[in-house]
Amino acid sequence: MALAQPHDRPVSEELVREHARGWESFTHFMRVAVIGVAVLLILMAIFLL
Hints:
By secondary structure, the protein is mainly α. Helices cover 73% and strands 0% of the residues. It has one helix spanning 13-48.
């Protein structure tokens, strides 16, 4: 991990929380999308083969 430099500006806790919520929302969306694609492929395999 990089050490803080004297010229680095501090980051507010609110900004960190906002970005953490965004990351959690993104990962939840991606998880649901991957599961949806997997289910779609399984259903296609069942009905088309």
